[in-house]
Write a structure and sequence with these properties.
507 residues; six-stranded antiparallel sheet; 2 helices; 7% helix; elongated
């Protein structure tokens, strides 16, 4: 019997092919494992500067930074039992900054927690368990007081913004920056460390605003509350949060708010520039679509292009002077006065509780305490008022006095509400603003479905910044008589107008 055999050369070729088919994938896999070991293994997942902020009776925010981009989550521990992990507010993904909100907690209770960074678990530092305590229930309630602005130089949404008191007497408040560079924090969440009670900053309160994008990358601004923010809570244009490598913000934090961390005491700070003399602002450029920011409460962002504006950069059209005076943003302890002047001129308001004694003065919200600049579009906010109280005022615009025909303007502040409304806001950008960049956005809500509040809400207004950005806190609207917050529903209509030096249409 003759047995068929494979020629020796052909057999060698087959063996070679088999070796290649098996060896190449093994080589690729081995190379990948080496890469994972040396490159991914070099990622330092250690949480640094673990910070407690936004302390409330039912929720707390835990944030930290890492030397490299890592994933991060928090496991609450209740009665020594680990709970379901809570992911970063911004969703899964590797970041230098990490921001986790723990909600549905019990008042005045101590909670331990575990940080999961990559696949490593961290439950203590220096032999002490990572833990925090929620605030006790309190009869004191503070109305939401949103502050907002933008950050430049950050990496996408990988930035956390903190607001704290310079004397370190309160837990900080915080929020993540949206992908569009905008941020919003609620200063009403500031809580006294020693008394564990809400703190309301006054215009003269010294505060620190910090942006953090890494262990040693950030920005720090210091100043009084009224110097840094205008009456709508927007960071004034003369100040900037610009991320700079080698800048650490953590030495400004209260020691009790930092559970695990280190910081360099030689902090490079950004000194706020002095308010410049008035200069003609540059022309705004077309803007791109803005993304929805995550923040406190709900924010609806929509870009508005005012294509039907009657453009007239060289002249002022429409109603000006005393006929243009309006009262907006009326609340229990504040209201704003707006008007339009035919020429660029300084403007302020004199007011008091007596028609014969207007001894108090309030400047335009874009001005500091010691300076007044000329504008076409004016907005002056009277704050720290008494609820349910009658106030008298007159407008000083250039050399003119608007005093309602000698009778003075009268405003009754609204009564304080027993409970604070949920915080909602709308915002966006507009195009077509004149070269002087001066405009106000006005809005009101009209009932459209006979649900919630009836009729139309009070008017709210906000100054448009040099980039056309604006934001309005719609939860500050009230019913016409001011007895309650305006309860709006999905069937209602928001009317938006722009006040500038030429005519616009309602949107």
């Amino acid at each position: 019997m003759k047995i068929a055999t494979v020629p020796r050369k052909r057999r060698r070729d087959l063996i070679t092919i088999v070796v290649l088919l098996i060896g190449i994938p093994l080589l690729v896999f081995a190379s990948y494992q080496v890469y994972q070991f040396f490159v991914m293994g070099s990622v330092e997942p250690l949480p640094r500067n673990v910070t407690i902020s936004n302390v409330k009776h039912s929720s707390v925010t835990i944030s930290w930074v890492t030397d490299e981009r890592t994933t991060g989550s928090v496991i609450p521990v209740v009665n020594e039992q680990e709970q379901v992990p809570v992911l970063d507010e911004r969703g899964p993904g590797r970041r230098f900054t990490h921001f986790v909100n723990l909600e549905f907690l019990e008042p005045n209770k101590r909670y331990e927690f575990i940080i999961v960074s990559e696949d490593e678990r961290y439950s203590e530092v220096g032999g002490e368990r990572l833990a925090f305590s929620t605030a006790p229930l309190s009869a004191e309630t503070s109305s939401p007081n949103p502050l907002h602005g933008s950050v430049s130089g950050g990496r996408g949404d990988d930035v956390i913004v903190y607001l704290m008191l310079k004397d370190k007497s309160a837990y900080p408040v915080s929020a993540v920056m949206g992908a569009g560079g905008n941020w919003m924090v609620d200063s009403a969440l500031l809580r006294d460390i020693s008394q564990n009670s809400p703190m309301v900053p006054t215009p003269s309160t010294n505060v620190v605003l910090a942006a953090v994008s890494g262990v040693d990358e950030g920005s720090v601004i210091e100043g009084t509350y009224s110097d840094l923010f205008d009456s709508n809570g927007r960071l004034k244009d003369v100040y900037a949060l610009n991320i700079i490598p080698g800048t650490s913000a953590f030495s400004h934090f209260p020691e009790v708010a930092i559970l695990a961390g280190f910081w360099d005491e030689s902090v490079e700070e950004i000194t706020p520039p002095s308010v410049p003399d008035f200069q003609e602002p540059i022309t705004t450029f077309p803007i791109e679509e803005e993304e929805v920011d995550r923040g406190i409460g709900r924010r609806l962002v929509h870009d508005l292009e005012w294509v039907d504006m009657v453009r007239a950069d060289g002249a002022v059209s429409g109603v000006t002077g005393e006929s243009s005076v309006q009262i907006v943003n009326k609340m229990d302890t504040s209201f704003s006065v707006i008007w339009l002047s035919e020429e660029r001129e300084e403007g302020y308001v004199r007011y008091g509780t007596s028609q014969e004694n207007l001894s108090l003065e309030a400047n335009d919200e874009r001005d500091g305490l010691g300076n007044r600049n000329p504008y076409y579009v004016h907005m002056v906010t009277l704050s720290r008022l008494e609820p349910n109280t009658e106030y008298f005022f007159e407008v000083r615009s250039g050399n003119s006095i608007y005093d309602n025909g000698g009778r003075k303007y009268r405003v009754n502040t609204f009564p304080s509400l027993t409970s604070s409304p949920s915080f909602d806001s709308i915002g966006g950008r507009i195009e077509g603003v004149p070269s002087h960049n001066e405009a106000l956005v006005l809005a009101s809500i009209e009932d459209g479905d006979s649900l919630g509040s009836q009729g139309e809400s009070t008017k709210i207004a906000s100054v448009v910044d040099e980039n056309g950005r604006w934001i309005l806190t719609v939860s500050n609207t009230r019913t016409a008589d001011g007895s309650s917050s305006f309860e709006y529903t999905s069937g209602d209509t928001v009317h938006i107008d722009v006040l500038t030096t030429f005519l616009t249409a309602t949107h």
